[in-house]
């Protein structure tokens, strides 16, 4: 496998410039992911995350095929970035969408917060929301399905 070290260095520099912890690019069937760990965050992360896998030890095996199916679904609206998803504009307000609701192209579906910037994720087409794939305040990865519109 030929690794484009120049591209890897550019991505690493981009991580430093933006403060992101990871970045992934895909081009012509080749995928490159560059990630870094920040020592202050790494120490706190296992404590917060450790309880969730223990409580749902059997759930990941069942959930994995469903997410794979959703990722290839033609109506899947995927996260364009790593961040935290919000289903409403502010705590306590009504969610942007509900399953079964009709949406128009350009309607805000969710917000993904990345680096303290709120990024509205808009409907690429009109249709019916058949599935909301994420929970409020859930961390999301790049290319993770957020909503399915048919």
Could you walk me through the main structural features you see in this protein, from its secondary elements to its overall organization?
The protein is of the alpha+beta class and 150 residues long. The protein folds into two domains: 1-57, no CATH class; 75-150, RNA polymerase II/Efflux pump adaptor protein, barrel-sandwich hybrid domain (OB fold (Dihydrolipoamide Acetyltransferase, E2P), Beta Barrel), CATH 2.40.50.100. 30% of the residues lie in helices and 31% in strands. It contains three helices and ten strands. It has helices at residues 5-18, 39-55, 59-72, and strands at 22-27, 30-35, 76-78, 83-86, 102-103, 108-114, 117-122, 127-132, 139-140, 145-149. Strands 3-10-8-5 form a four-stranded antiparallel beta sheet, with helices on one face. The protein has a four-stranded antiparallel beta sheet with strand order 7-6-4-9, with no helix packed on it. A two-stranded antiparallel ribbon has the order 1-2. Strand 6 and strand 7 form a beta hairpin. The radius of gyration is 17 Å and the shape is globular.
CATH-defined superfamily of the largest domain? RNA polymerase II/Efflux pump adaptor protein, barrel-sandwich hybrid domain
| Strand percent estimate | 25-35%
| Main beta sheet | 4 strands, antiparallel
CATH level 3 topology of the largest domain: OB fold (Dihydrolipoamide Acetyltransferase, E2P)
Count the E strands. 10
> Percent helix among the residues?
25-40%
- Catalogue the unreliable spans: 39-65
Q: What is the overall pLDDT average?
A: 78
Elements, N to C (H/E): HEEHHEEEEEEEE
Question: How many distinct domains?
Answer: 2
């Amino acid at each position: 496998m030929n690794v484009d070290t120049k591209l890897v260095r550019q991505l690493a520099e981009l991580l430093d410039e933006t403060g992101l912890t990871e970045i992934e690019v895909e081009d012509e069937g080749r995928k490159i992911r560059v990630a870094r760990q920040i020592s202050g965050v790494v120490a706190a992360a296992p404590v917060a995350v450790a309880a969730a896998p223990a409580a749902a030890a059997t759930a990941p095996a069942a959930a994995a095929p469903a997410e794979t199916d959703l990722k290839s679904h033609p109506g899947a609206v995927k996260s364009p970035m790593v961040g935290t998803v919000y289903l409403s504009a502010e705590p306590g307000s009504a969610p942007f969408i509900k399953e079964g609701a009709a949406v128009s192209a350009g309607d805000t579906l969710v917000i993904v917060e990345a680096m303290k910037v709120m990024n509205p994720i808009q409907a690429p087409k009109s249709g019916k929301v058949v599935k909301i794939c994420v929970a409020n305040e859930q961390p999301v990865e790049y290319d993770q399905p957020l909503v399915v519109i048919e």
